[in-house]
Amino acid sequence: MKAMIFKSVGEGRPYPDHGLVSAKDWADVPPRQVRLDELVTTKRTLDLDVLLAEDSTFYGDLFAHVVEYQGVLYLEDGLHRAVRAALQQRPVLHARVLTLR
């Protein structure tokens, strides 16, 4: 069986708009650990400058943003954090998880 970093690589957000835009909007969503292999990405590409930047979280949230919709965890923001975790052989990521019903 072939090992995968993510459950799936998607393009776009298949869930309804939740209205959270800025890091301040997400601040009330508590962070928790999520497994990388349970995440579906909402972006197919990653800017290497963001991945390699030492201060990539300086101006944003320290946690990735994940939306749980219909039982699926979608990685909305923080692809660079998730890839960095995978490169460091960490199977989990700390993320703010917003559950939509």
Automatic annotation (TrEMBL):
It comes from the Bacteria. Pfam families: VapB. InterPro entries: VapB-like_prob. This is Transcription regulator of the Arc/MetJ class. The lineage of its organism: Bacteria, Bacillati, Actinomycetota, Actinomycetes, Micrococcales.
